[in-house]
Structure formats: C-alpha cells, structure tokens
Write a structure and sequence with these properties.
Layout lengths: L4 E5 L4 H12 L3 E6 L3 H8 L3 E4 L5 H15 L4 E4 L14 H28 L3 E6 L12 H21 L4 E8 L9 H5 L9 H12 L10 E4 L8
Parallel strand pairs: 1-2, 1-4, 2-3, 4-5, 5-6, 6-7
Length: 233
C-alpha cells in the first residue's frame, strides 16, 4: 500500500494534469478523474488509477472515491479543478447560466469534499486544494459566473477550515492568474508585472506545496499565483 494517495478531479489536461504529474513525481499514488478520457490515459502513464466521469455527478464522484479507496485504502490529498462556466454581459446571463456557473465553479468542490473529508477525518489528516482564480478578490466582467461562484468558494473554504482544522484536515485555494494553458495575448502579458504568463507547472508546484507537510499550518487560505497581477493588499 502506498504511503500517500492523491485524487485529482478534473485532471485530464492543463493545471489539473500538471498537478497529477507533480504529485506523482513527489511520490504520491495518483487517481485522476476527467470527463474526456484524458485522465485515464494520464493515470496509466503515471501508474495510477484513471476514471472517466463528471465532477457534476455525485454518482461518478462516489464511484471514483470508492475505487480509490478499494485500491489504496486512504486519500491524503484531493485536488479540485474546474471546467469553464458561462460568460456573457452581466444582465444577459440567464438563471440557467448562473446555475451552471455555480455547478462548475463551486459545487464541484462541495460534491467531492462531502465524500472525501470524512475519510480524511477518520485517518486524522488530509489536504484539499481547490484551483480557483486570481480574480476572485477583484472581479472582472470577462469572468462573471466564475467571479461570483468562486467568491462563494472562498467563504466555503473559511467555513471548512473552522470545522475541520481540529481534525488536521486542511483546505486551501490556489488563485492562478494568466497561465499558459489559456490563449495568450500581448495585452494580457504586458499587464503582468513579471511580463509573462505563468506555467501550469508553477501552479502544480504550489498545489503540491499546499498538499505537503511543509504547509501543515496553512488552512482556509487563498494564495495568488499571478506574477503580481492583482493589486489588492
């Protein structure tokens, strides 16, 4: 049985896939869920467990958790990635689109955490890391449903920390800025003090740190990884 096990939900490509690779390199056995089938291929490459399903489905997530526990008997880290929610001018976003945004950017975390946190409590430790966005504290019109739903995620993370820190179960959010998995433009790059896009590998390194014992006293936090882009202090 492996010493450490990490579940990556939404790990087929981009930052989620980079996190799976980094955690595997750090010695974790990895279980990877994606809706595309890419997660299964990546998990096979990394010697782990792959599962094709949706983080919008409680049934898929339960099956994924059950398979992980059957294989390794524990879950030390849970990484929650997200897809892309609706984008439109603010007053043109329909009720259905708002609900979709909440599903994509907030309930993805709630669903997986509901299943995994009790396991971590029982084993007296674990870390949950959610991939959010640097714009959560400075909402931008270009990502309206993300801004609203992920503000809720930040509050949820604080509430989770209040209740579960005593069990040595931690939750933190990583807030990426412009990352190389997104389309690049000169205007966006020039607005970053570092004058470049970040890399998925840099986000993965932050996720791995927050999952590690080196971050054992960090919970309830939202950590910007944005090259200095955001101005809030």
């Amino acid at each position: 049985m492996s010493d450490k096990v990490a579940m990556i939900v939404g790990g087929g490509s981009g930052m989620g896939a980079a996190a799976a690779r980094k955690l595997a390199a750090d010695g974790y056995s990895v279980a990877v869920l994606s809706s595309s089938g890419k997660g299964e291929a990546l998990a096979k490459e990394l010697g782990g467990l792959g599962f094709t399903g949706s983080n919008q489905s409680n049934d898929d997530l339960k099956r994924f958790v059950d398979l992980t526990m059957e294989k390794w008997g524990r879950i030390d880290a849970l990484v929650n990635g997200a897809g892309h929610g609706p984008r439109a001018p603010l007053l043109e976003i329909t009720d259905e689109q708002w609900h979709t945004g909440i599903d994509v950017y907030f309930l993805n975390v709630v669903r997986a955490t509901r299943l995994v946190a009790p396991i971590m409590v029982a084993q007296k430790g674990g870390a949950i890391v959610n991939i959010s966005t640097a714009w959560v504290g400075e909402p931008a019109a270009m990502f309206p449903t993300s801004a609203v739903a992920r503000a809720g995620l930040a509050a949820y993370t604080k509430l989770f920390a209040d209740q579960y820190a005593q069990h040595n179960v931690r939750m933190n959010n990583v807030l990426p800025g412009w990352i190389d998995s997104l389309p690049q433009t000169d205007e966006r790059r020039d607005g970053v003090p570092m004058q470049r896009y970040g890399t998925s590998a840099e986000i993965a390194a932050t996720i791995a740190f927050l999952a590690s014992e080196g971050a054992a006293y960090i919970t309830g936090q939202s950590l910007k990884v944005d090259g200095g882009l955001m101005r809030g202090v």
